[in-house]
Design goal:
Belongs to the transglycosylase Slt family. By secondary structure, the chain is mainly α. The chain contains twelve helices and four strands.
Length: 308
């Protein structure tokens, strides 16, 4: 009996020691807190969907090279969370402007994601001289009817720039034979893509050996399409009210010079900053307009801004 009692006492004492040691190990010290914090952030491998396509043209994901390149872009864009959330926010604001123009011109809706990777849906400026959401070069803009100078640069007019992009893409599709190659040509040029196809004796984008930027181009577009179409699937959580809203505007026709846009803006109950915000194609504080051209200046509707 005494032996049993001693054994039970020893087991009890041993249990207390183990609990004490465990408690010390689990105490919220700086060191183990940081370890827990790191371990609580989990990064998962992603399942590449087997039915990905661009403009209805399937990606050959049975090809291991294509699968790896697609996996890379899904990972990069899923785990670049801050940028991803910004794309969701801006898409809510600008896709409703882009989508009907693509549809009117017979350009597949998927091309709106091309604008996302070109500029992040901002009026970006490239080192090469491209401007605006669609990153149009000066010569391309002028060739397609846009006014491009120091006073007025219509590459910053989203509606007009989208029309120019549509024209380019339709011509590229007719020349190159597929929407995928047309998209690639937006980055490398129609002549550039055509030359590479001939040199390498292939007929599709996915069979071409290309430089880093053009080689990733379609995969980035499709990755953004997949993520922006399935936010919950890729871990993005937001409410509709978290997204950016497009401020309603009305258009004022102007066919004369405007000497002072600050005074012009005040006539409509806004300030110069808001005038430029809604009309980024107006590049200077005045409008020359020696030719008496018709311009349409967008004015935000009353009540959407607090003017001091």
């Amino acid at each position: 009996m005494k032996i049993i009692q001693k054994a039970l006492a020893f087991v009890g004492l041993l249990s207390l020691c183990i609990l004490f040691i465990y408690a010390l190990q689990d105490a919220p010290t700086d060191e183990n807190f940081e370890t827990k914090l790191i371990n609580d952030y989990n990064v998962y491998a992603l399942q590449v969907p087997d039915d990905l396509n661009f403009a209805g043209e399937a990606m050959p994901l049975e090809n291991p090279d294509i699968l790896e390149r697609m996996d890379r872009e899904l990972l990069v864009n899923t785990y670049w969370q801050s940028n991803g959330l910004l794309m969701f926010k801006r898409a809510k604001k600008y896709f409703p402007i882009i989508e009907p123009i693509l549809a009117k011109n017979g350009v597949p809706d998927d091309f709106k994601y091309l604008a996302v990777i070109e500029s992040g849906l901002t009026n970006a400026v490239s080192p090469a001289g491209a401007r605006g959401v669609w990153q149009i070069m000066p010569a391309t803009g002028r060739e397609n009817g846009l006014e491009v100078n120091k006073n007025v640069d219509e590459r910053y007019n989203l509606e007009k720039a989208t029309e120019v992009a549509c024209k380019y893409l339709l011509e590229a599709k007719a020349k190159l034979g597929s929407w995928t190659l047309a998209a690639a040509s937006y980055n490398a040029g129609k002549a550039g893509v055509s030359k590479r196809l001939k040199e390498q004796s292939v007929s599709t984008y996915y069979d071409l050996l290309l430089g880093e930027e053009t080689g990733r181009y379609l995969f980035r577009i499709v990755a953004l399409k997949e993520i922006l179409s399935n936010p919950k699937k890729y871990g993005f959580n937001f409410r509709d009210k978290d997204l950016y809203a497009n401020i309603p505007t009305y258009k004022i026709e102007v066919d004369t010079a405007v000497t002072d846009f600050t005074q012009f803006a005040q006539r409509f109950g806004i300030n110069y900053k808001l005038l430029k915000l809604h009309n980024p194609w107006l590049r200077e504080p005045h409008l020359n307009n020696k030719s008496r051209k018709q311009y349409y200046i967008e004015i935000p509707k009353e009540g959407f801004y607090s003017i001091r």
